[in-house]
Specification:
By secondary structure, the chain is an all-alpha fold. 78% of the residues lie in helices and 0% in strands. The chain has two domains: 49 residues, Homeodomain-like (Arc Repressor Mutant, subunit A, Orthogonal Bundle); 129 residues, Tetracycline Repressor, domain 2.
């Protein structure tokens, strides 16, 4: 006797997945918020994984699963500062730029937006007593990523035929990487008191003058 065909129930996975993602995002935000509070209250040494877990009301294993380490939490605190609408809009404007001048001005806007949004977090990390080697390693890692990110914009300029005579791809990347560095932002905006708008305009002008024919 043949068995009746098995009736397959509709899978609920597609309906559960968005819920799980929302829960994961909320857990991530809660852990990051707890870490920030502990940095303010107890400094870097007081921001232990166990303390973060307790403040966020999750297990230490969950914190490790989400961020892997204290350094991963510090990275998150910096990254969340650059997820605002101004950053997204500046990136979109850069992608849509049809000429090198507009593109370089958009790069200046992204630079200003990122450093302005990270100001509070960087001051918090330094003020909270983050050990110098840990913060230096984190900043070095992010600088390597920033340098790598220059290649797309330089490739656009090369393809447009507007790269300044005497420059090659490597030199052009070095120039853009230098003018968009945090050190220049710190010196002009934080130490010399330049308004952010003035800093952004200057960076755009210097990139155009230095990179374009």
């Amino acid at each position: 006797m043949e068995k009746p065909p098995k009736i397959l129930e509709p899978s609920s996975r597609s309906y559960q997945s968005p819920t799980r993602q929302r829960q994961a995002d909320e857990t991530r935000r809660r852990i990051a918020a707890a870490a920030r509070e502990l940095l303010v209250e107890h400094g870097y040494n007081g921001m232990t994984i166990d303390a973060v877990a307790g403040r966020a009301e999750v297990s230490a294993q969950t914190v490790y699963a989400v961020f892997r380490s204290k350094r991963g939490i510090l990275t998150e605190l910096l990254d969340e500062a650059r997820r605002g609408p101004q950053f997204v809009a500046a990136v979109q404007q850069t992608i849509e730029a049809g000429d090198p001048e507009t593109r370089l001005k958009s790069v200046a806007r992204i630079t200003r937006t990122v450093y302005t949004s990270e100001n509070e977090v960087m001051d918090l990390l330094r003020g909270a007593g983050v050990v110098a080697p840990e913060l230096a390693a984190l900043e070095q890692e992010r600088e390597c990523m920033r340098y790598e990110g220059q290649k797309h914009n330089i490739a656009f300029i090369i393809e447009s035929g507007r790269l300044k005579a005497g420059l090659d791809e490597a030199m052009a990347r070095d120039i853009q990487w230098t003018f968009t560095s945090r050190d220049i932002y710190r010196m002009l905006v934080k130490e010399r008191g330049w308004p952010a708008d003035q800093y952004e305009a200057w960076v755009g002008e210097m990139l155009i003058a230095s990179l374009l024919s």
